[in-house]
Specification:
Length: 500
C-alpha cells in the first residue's frame, strides 16, 4: 500500500505527494473531485507530524493503514455520516458537541472521555469541538462541518497536542472547518438556513458541552447564535432517537473491537483466579494492569471488587476491604479497546475451593445464565425484557430446590437488577433504547443474573450473606450467540482447577 493511503483500502493518489497521509473528504469517497479536494501539508516527514490523537502515520503500532481510530476505518466513519444524512429530511442538520474536560479541582483534570455519539460519527477524540452534518436542499448529498481548536504552540506545551483545523479537513475528512472559538458566527448561518435541527444539546444541557455554553451566554459573541436557536426551537428534534437505531447494530469492525476487549479482559480474569488475594484493592489494581498490558486502552469503568457481604452492594466500588478465606469475591470489571467496552462479572471463592452451599447457589446462577445466553439469537425472537422474565422463572425454580421460600415477590429482593443491557461504545449503550424490542443480529448485550442473600433469618442459614453475579458480553447472531468474553472461566470445576 502506498504510504499516503490513510482513508482508503487502496491508494490511487499519485506517488508525487508527500509521505504524510493526505486523506480525502467524504465527497471524494463518493464523487472524486481531484482538482479541488486534494490537500497536502508542507514538506514535513510523517514522523515529525503530531496530532491530538494517534494516527497510523504517527502510531503504526496502534493503528493499521486506513484506520482513523483503532479498528475503525475513516471510510466507516464516512459511511456512518452518510447513513445518518440519508435518514434526515432535506435541508436538515444534525449538531453534536465533543465532551468537556472535567476537573477534580483547580487545574487537576479527570481522564478525557469523548461523547459517544460525537465519536461514533467523527472519530475525533479531542474536547471543545462541534460537528454538523447537513443534508442538501435536494437531498442528494450532505456536508460535514467539523469545528475544532486551532493549533496553538503555547497552549499545546501545557495541555497537549491539538490536531487543528487543517487536520479536520485532511485527516478527519470534514468538508468545512473553522476555529471553535468562532463557533457562534460560524454556526448561526448554518442553523438559520436549516429546515430542521436534530440535536440533544438543547434538551440535555446537563452535558455542559462547550457548545451549550452559547445557549446561556449573553455576550455579544454568542447572542446571535442563541437568538437563531431560539427562533428554530419548534423545528428542533432529538438526535439520539435517530442514532440509537444505527449504533445498536454493530459492524464487523465494532464486534472485532469488542471481541478483542473481551478476550484480553477474560484472560486477565482467569489469571487473577489463579492467585490468592488478601485485599480487594490489590485485585482491582492487578486487573487494571492486566487489561492494559494485554492490549486494552484502559478499564471500561470503575471496577467492583467485593468480598463477602460487600457483593450484595450492586455498585460497590470502595474496594478497600480485606478478602478472607471462606468468603467469595465478586468482581465486575472489563477493558476498553478503541473506545469499545467489555463487561464481565465473575464470582469465585477466595480460598480457591467452593463450599457446598457456595457451589449450590453459584450453580443456580450459572444454570440461569447458560439458559439465557443460549437464547441470544435473532431466531429465538425474544427481547431483553422477556429474557429477564425467563431468568426470574429459572432462578425461582433453582431457589425452591435449595429450600428458599419463593412465594409472592420474594425474588425481587434477591435479584433486584435487570438481567442485561446493551453495550458498545458505552457500558450502558444507546440510552433510551427499549428492552422490549426483539433482539436482532449484531446487537451486543450483557447477560448477568445474580442472587444477593441478606444475612437475616428469613433465608436458609448456609446461604446468608452471599452475593453471586455471573456476567458475559454477548453478540446476538442469527442462529447462535457469540460470547465475547469466553476466556473468563466460570465452571466450578475450571475455577477450582486454577488453584489446585
Amino acid at each position: 500500500m502506498h504510504p499516503c493511503a490513510h482513508t482508503l483500502n487502496k491508494c490511487t493518489r499519485p506517488p508525487t505527494f508527500l509521505p504524510f497521509a493526505v486523506s480525502i473528504t467524504r465527497r471524494l469517497l463518493l464523487q472524486p473531485r481531484w482538482s479541488t479536494l486534494l490537500r497536502r501539508y508542507a514538506s514535513v516527514s510523517a514522523v515529525e507530524l503530531r496530532f491530538g490523537q494517534p494516527l497510523h502515520e504517527t502510531h503504526p503500532h496502534l493503528l493499521k493503514a486506513g484506520e482513523l481510530t483503532p479498528g475503525i476505518t475513516a471510510l466507516e466513519y464516512a459511511q456512518r455520516r452518510s447513513k445518518l444524512a440519508a435518514n434526515l429530511p432535506k435541508n436538515a442538520i444534525a449538531i453534536l458537541a465533543a465532551s468537556e474536560i472535567k476537573y477534580r479541582s483547580g487545574a487537576v483534570f479527570h481522564e478525557f472521555h469523548q461523547d459517544s455519539n460525537f465519536f461514533y460519527l467523527t472519530g475525533f477524540n479531542e474536547p471543545e469541538a462541534v460537528a454538523v452534518i447537513g443534508k442538501s436542499i435536494d437531498g442528494d448529498d450532505h456536508t460535514f462541518h467539523l469545528f475544532v481548536r486551532e493549533k496553538d504552540a503555547k497552549a499545546e506545551q501545557w495541555d497537549g497536542v491539538r490536531s487543528g483545523t487543517r487536520a479536520a479537513l485532511d485527516v478527519f475528512n470534514a468538508d468545512e472547518t473553522g476555529d471553535i472559538n468562532q463557533i457562534s458566527s460560524l454556526l448561526a448561518p448554518i442553523v438559520q438556513e436549516a429546515s430542521k435541527i436534530y440535536t440533544d444539546l438543547i434538551s440535555e444541557p446537563k452535558n455542559k458541552s462547550f457548545f451549550s455554553r452559547f445557549l446561556y451566554d449573553q455576550s455579544p459573541k454568542a447572542e446571535g447564535l442563541a437568538k437563531v436557536l431560539k427562533s428554530k426551537s419548534s423545528n428542533t428534534l432529538p438526535l439520539k432517537d435517530v442514532l440509537n437505531g444505527f449504533r445498536n447494530l454493530k459492524s464487523d469492525a465494532e464486534i472485532a473491537n469488542m471481541r478483542k476487549a473481551g478476550q484480553a479482559s477474560g484472560r486477565a480474569y482467569t489469571d487473577a483466579m489463579r492467585r490468592a488475594w488478601k485485599k480487594e484493592k490489590d485485585l482491582a489494581a492487578y486487573l487494571d494492569y492486566q487489561f492494559r498490558t494485554r492490549g486494552c486502552d484502559c478499564s471500561a469503568y470503575i471496577p467492583v471488587v467485593a468480598g463477602g457481604q460487600n457483593a450484595s452492594i450492586i455498585h460497590y466500588t470502595q474496594n478497600d476491604h480485606l478478602l478472607k478465606d471462606g468468603q467469595m469475591v465478586l468482581v465486575d470489571a472489563g477493558g476498553e479497546c478503541g473506545g469499545y467496552i467489555t463487561d464481565i462479572t465473575r464470582t469465585w471463592p477466595v480460598s480457591g475451593t467452593f463450599t457446598p452451599a457456595q457451589k449450590d447457589l453459584y450453580n443456580a446462577v450459572l444454570t440461569t445464565q447458560r439458559q439465557c445466553i443460549s437464547l441470544c439469537r435473532a431466531n429465538a425472537n425474544v427481547s431483553l425484557d422477556e429474557l429477564h422474565n425467563i431468568a426470574g422463572t429459572t432462578l425461582t425454580d433453582q431457589l425452591k430446590q435449595l429450600g428458599f421460600d419463593t412465594s409472592g415477590n420474594a425474588l425481587d429482593a434477591l435479584f433486584p437488577h435487570h438481567l442485561g443491557h446493551y453495550i458498545g461504545l458505552d457500558v450502558h449503550d444507546t440510552p433510551g433504547q427499549s428492552r422490549k424490542t426483539k433482539l436482532q443480529s449484531r446487537q451486543c448485550v450483557t447477560i448477568e443474573p445474580g442472587l444477593y442473600i441478606p444475612n437475616t433469618e428469613a433465608y436458609p442459614a448456609p446461604f446468608r450473606g452471599m452475593g453471586i453475579r455471573i456476567e458475559d458480553s454477548v453478540c446476538v447472531q442469527e442462529e447462535h450467540p457469540l460470547v465475547l468474553t469466553t476466556e473468563a472461566v466460570k465452571e466450578v470445576v475450571d475455577i477450582e482447577a486454577l488453584r489446585n
